[in-house]
Please model this.
Amino acid sequence: MAEKELPEPKRRNKTLSVADVLSGALDPVLKKRGFATRDIITHWRVIAPPPYDQTTMPDKLVWPRSAGHGHEGAVLYLRCGPGQALFVQHAAPEIAQTVNRYFGYHLINEVRLSAELFTPGSGAKVQKNRQPSQSDIAKVGTAVEKIEDTDLREALRVLGLALSGRSDKSR
Model:
């Protein structure tokens, strides 16, 4: 009897974006949270009205249990920053209208607050500018002194000083 040969693995000889690769992993998680697509999460800063685009983020959508989904909208649960809960509750109808206007149909019927905390601006880190030491300046200066073009020499000097600061962080 001939041995069964394994099928050759499917090859992908093209580049893929990170979003496309991660969508297979993220979509089932988002569907458990009630989101059919990632649009409301990825475009929240565009969708939400100005003060709430920075202080809130969608947590989940809860759809009504009725058999026919008709014109009933979902309940959007929002995570909000500390001290913002009262303001978000007061502006809930405005937020729902803004989301519905963005999508062009009645998606959100009500906005409620989630019990999960949201820390605004967690992704924005302030970088500290480090002043290079005299030994770094001298080392980079000797490395680029033989370059004749002044613009290139200055650009390489700035790059060398920036890279010397990075190597100190990794040590």
User: Anything to note?
Assistant: The chain has a mean pLDDT of 82. Strands lie at 56-62, 74-80, 108-117. The CA atoms of residues 148 and 154 lie 11 Å apart. The helical segments are 18-32, 39-42, 44-47, 50-55, 85-90, 92-103, 134-144, 150-170.
